[in-house]
Structure formats: C-alpha cells, structure tokens
Amino acid sequence: MGATSKVNKARLRNIQSALSRSHKTTIEDVSDSEEDSSCSDSKDDIGFSVEEGEDVNDEAALLTFSEILYRAQDTAVKGERQRSKDTRRPNYYSGNSTRTLRCHALERKRIAETNQTFISSWIKKKPEVVGVQVEDTVTESPFDHEDEQIQKMLEDIWNGQPPCDDSPETFTDSVLNAMDYKDFPALCHARTKIAVSSKDKKLDVVFRSRITAMLGALNLYLDPELSYGWHEASLVASKSLGQGINHAHNIWTWIHQFLHNEKLPLHRYGQYHSSILEDEDFAQDIQLHLSEVQQREGHI
Fold this sequence. Notes:
52% of the residues lie in helices and 0% in strands. By secondary structure, the chain is mainly alpha-helical.
C-alpha cells in the first residue's frame, strides 16, 4: 500500500475539523447532567411540573379529549385545503385564462363563418320554474355545540390561526427546533410506540391522558398538510384538555424525554407517601426538643 501524500493528509485534517465545527445538537448529545429529574428509572423519582387538576380522571373524559384532538387536526387540514382552494392561482391548469378564452372566441367566430352547426345548439336548457319559492336553510356551524373555549380554538384553527406561545426559548425548545425532515422517520417510529401505549387499558386514565396529549401533538407536527411547530402542536393539545401554556410546556418536555430515553411521564396520583413524622425515633426527638423549649421558655 502506497504512502499517503501530504496533500491527502491535509485534506483529511480539514474535513475532520469542518465536521466538528458543523456538528449540530441532537437528542443523543444531551448529557445526563442536563436531563430533567423526571428521567429516573423508578416511578417515585419521575416527576414533572404539574398543575393540580390538569389531568383526565375518567374514561369518558379521556374519550372526549381524544375526539377533540382528532377534530382539531381534521379542522386544521380542511381549513388548509380550503385556503389553498381560494387562492387566485390554482395548483393546476384550469383552461380559463384570458388568452385561452380569446383563442376559443376566435375559433368559434371562424367556425360560424363557415355555416357549421355548433354542438351547443343541440343541447336544450331546462326551462326555469317560475313561482316556486325555496325556503332559506340555515346552515349550522359545526362548532355550535362545543364548549366555548374549544369552539374558539377550532374556529381559529379553521381560519389558519393556531394558538401561539411567545415565551423565551428553553434548552428543550432548542433541541426540538433543531430537528428537520431527516428526523421524521425516528419521530414516526416514536409516534407508533406512543400510540400503542395510549391504547393499553392496563395503564391508569391519568397516565394515558398524558400519552394521548403527546400523541396528539406529534400527529399535528408530523401532518404533511400542516406546518405546525412544536409550540403550536402542543398548545392545541393543551387547549383541547382545557389547559394553557404551562401544560403545553409539559407536553413538549415529555416528548423530548421520550425521544431521548423512551420514558413516559408517570405520576404520583393515588400513591401512598409515608411521612417522616411516622419515624418513632424522629418523633421522639421532636417531642424531647419541644419539652425542653417549654421548660426553658414556659411556652412553645
């Protein structure tokens, strides 16, 4: 094998230095020290900033939440299609340009000069019915029977105005926003796993509601007909549950943690927590200290 020339060695060094400079932050680059305390393996160590009363507590509420998420995505897609249909320039050739109409008019004029019969003369129009009154039908809005907050959100989504969040960018935001189309296969794989977990009846309702919120945000983000970012997708999922920005932050934090280590957001609701006051030695020390204070001060 021949010796490598100095030119090739310098070229290899330049390539390696360029790759090290252009390296972008990915999910795998997150060190253990930068992870949230919610990444622990034990259930008791997993914890997120949770607002009280923000989770679903029964199967009926979970089913309603899932239906609202589905309707939100369906409304967003239909609204996007309607807006693209209403644009002045269609996505396909309709044959109705001014130049085409002028050419057709000249062709009809030329044919008429040759005393030829037009095909349109063979087609008879239906006679207009006079004196028949047509009752005006009132079109009911598809959002009339929804909750006021949900109705407002669906109407904004239909009009192309998804909820937005102007909060400062966090570390989690920078990692998620650095993802591009090359990460879509991994995101779709993660979405499939989350979808399977959301249908597991062995999990409690609160746990499944969080998984459903993650699934709804991923569906909105990965929809090819939409251009939702992580903030918009998470806010739609949060507002579908009747929550706000804080819960949306929790949703995209849960997604980030799952992409990094495939851990789902557990909770402590319904679990028994022992108190340190139940320790006999500790309780005896407290009683001894209080008795000394009472003897010295005359009161506690």
